Fold this protein.
Amino acid sequence: MYLLLISLLFISEPDSTYKHVDVNEVVVSGARHNGQKRSLKGVAASIDEHLAELNHVSLIRRGSYAMEPVVNNMQDERVSTTIDGMKIFYACTDKMDPVTSYVESSNLQSISLSSGLDGNPQATGNIGGSIDLRLRKVGFNAIKPFQLGSIVSFESNGAVRMVEADVALSQDRFYTNFGASFRKADNYSAGGNDEVQFSQFQKYNIFANVGGKFANGDRLEATVIYDKATDVGYPALNMDVAKAEAIITSLSYRRTFENSFFLTNETKAYYNRIVHIMDDSHRPDVPIRMDMPGKSWTAGLYNLLNGQGDYNQLQINYDVYYNLRHADMTMYADNSDWQMYMLTWPDVSTLCTGIAASDDVSLGNGQSLRFSGKGAWQQQHIGSYDGFQLLNVFFPHMKRTYHQTELRIAARYGIKSGPWQFNIGGGWGSRAPSITEGYSYYLNNTFDNYDYIGNPRLSNEKAFEANASATFSSGRLRLAVDANIFRFSDYIIGHVEDRLSAMTIGANGVKVYGNIDHATIANSQFSSALQLSNFISWNANVSYGLGRDDNNDNLPLIAPLQYRSSVNFTKGGLDVVVNAEGALKQYDSGAKYGEKGSNAYIVFGANLTYTKLFSKVNTTFRIGLENALDKFYSTYSDWNGLPHKGRNVYFSVNLTL
Amino acid sequence: MNLFKRLFLMLSASLSLLSCNDNDDVVDQFGQEILITDDVDCCSADEARQVYEFIRKVKEIPSLTQDIDNKYRLRFFTPTGTLHTGYNDIYVVVTKIISANYVKDIEISNFTPLMTMASGKVHSTSTSKTIDKFDNGILAVRHGWISFVMNSSDNGSWDLDFDIRILKSTQHLTLPISVDALPEGQKWITSFKVGEQSYHISLVNPAEWKVGSNNVSAYITSVGTDMKKPYVVTDKSFTVDITPSMPDMDYHSSPEGEPLTADANGIYKGVVNFTMTGLWRLHLTVKDNAGNIVAGGDENDHGFSTLSLEVSL
């Protein structure tokens, strides 16, 4: 595998000239370089485990599958997620399927995070940040024209087994790589050998990339991913998932220019479709049986122009996409002839188009400036007349079609002087309400146990961001501190509406989304790395977040003080890591918003990775231990206190020919 | 002078193929064409087409079709072609048998549904005061309504008792009718007492209600001292609060409704909202003009009035 990875890195031309001032990227399959991160489990790790490596990212767990990435303590509504620049939107009203759950590690080369308002060109509404899942394409002219790769992995806790195989062909004018993987898990056990019911899942995934190059250097590339998860348990919720299925396709044409300021111009057209079917048939006692299907499909196009001068790198992007989402629920009461049918997402379509630009300017003397901005216009339309009528009950004289403008601008100045690097930045941005915030109907949120109703009259949420970082690196020591603060106006959050009666049996009441005058979210992080000897290094990282509403009460799901530390021993093909991670008690839990708060914990783990070439076959063994002391714990982002895995031993082998 | 113009209903029939095809035989149950003549008793071509178009949208109750004096045919229609407990719209037309054209000058009076109980006791039920012309002058159709308090069964049978005048001749008829029970989860009529006086409240056509906001109508009728007389709309005025709840969903309620209040014609109008399909119980609180609760308004185990109706969407 490493050969393939190395070939990917050095032989394929860079996919983008996008320049990261701070690299916040996790390598999924590929050699790590220059500050990039990697999961200890390597490519065998799940997408969620890869995401967990990123700074500013935490994961909301509702089960052991499909965790929801949270960036700068902001959830999906304030975060953009794209797959190679393609927009894709989840189909589950209960957020059981963040779009990161529709790819597999073997599909990806890396996951890149842009913190805050300085988003990737295709991102819109990204106040908290933007995640781009970058696809693994073998590219033209790889060192080895024919490659085979395979992974087998097993984890003791929950019997998680995974197999993957892929093939790559790479020539001057043509490449293709394709593969398939299968992952299956039984119920896991929390610390103390406490089995967590309904925590199983299984998923398979197939993907193919193909590219052709014309004589003039222009290239045509296509991608297809088919991903299907079945029998996915959500122990923190009342329902499981029978099927979560996605097909993701794209076709792109890239022109290259010679002797010109502009280097490349890529046009990509894409289509993806998600079908999500919830299932409560395995639950022994639910107040009422229900079917809850959801669908989402998106078609879009972007055109990205890259330019490079002596002192600057310029990107200009135009994009347009159309997304349609439908969700409903049918409830079956015992002893009743009458089914109860409710539309929960009334066929809401979004047509959004925008222009983005960014410029990285080198000012000399170690100084740099970066500007980025985007303006987007969108139209949202309620396709279902019945759904429109339903919302009209609460919002008389509402319209069926709404238009919104979303803007963001960000700037950053950096200066490097001796061992010091300082960055300071700021921005302003706005986002339109999400489909759920704007148009949903009685969606039960099991976090605070309220039914939520969308509000089509919401104002756009706006935020100012300021950020700063300082890094000291000298010889064997690297110290870094960074912080950001977001000051929101018209922050969108649910408000209790006493006049309405809960639909869900046992719910506390109904909340309707509304704007509050202002809110503040701040994040800070300190990290250090020390090379103790040629073979031994020590890393540590501490982060803390804070969120307040307009009444100075705590916002929910804001991380308490968290820390991680590891000691690494590296020699030849051997890599040994001993690590610890934990958090303090969540003192600032959002009690007003139904948050119960989490307790302090610390867990320990270890990993051994060994890579060796056995007669042309590059082999990587991994063996590791997680939660070594079998601690029973849950973190602030574990939905309703869902306990984490207890002790777990994992083992994997990667083979690359 | 060409005395006979034939209105071939081929055009209408072909139109009906495009739309609703299940009522072609309303033209005539024997497939007879409607003959338009200069018969002043009957409809002109335009009028006849209007009537035809109207009754095409409703269904005939075949068992009530009566030939009178071998000359006229009396026909009854309802939206479903049947009668059921609760409110029923009833439409009446009379045709000349020879031409199948609609007679304009007819009058129905003393329209009285009567139930004869197994015990021998006889009573009526809520009924419109008159069976009369309606809407925008579809001259030959008469409309009225009956809200049956119970269905036909071994416990009792229903008859429809009325006088009908066709042109100058009047007849008294008593026709047996069959009233179906509504399915489980549909209860469109109920009674309440204010002092010694009993009233019925009937929802108008709740089968047409949908998820979302509904402008609903109801009639409140008073039970007379002579229970064999039809119970007609009361001239007392009430305000009726409606609180919907779903017994299958832990009594989830639906918001933002408006109470029923009587308009100038004595029809009660209000707004009821439904958040989803399924069985809805409508809890009623009846208030007098001064706002005093006179019926319902008590609290069952779930805090809702026990005076209630049921509608399932």
Notes: Confidence is low (pLDDT under 50) at residues 1-21 of chain A. The domain at 2-656 of chain A is CATH 2.40.170.20 (Maltoporin; Chain A). Residues 602 and 632 of chain A are 10 Å apart (CA to CA).
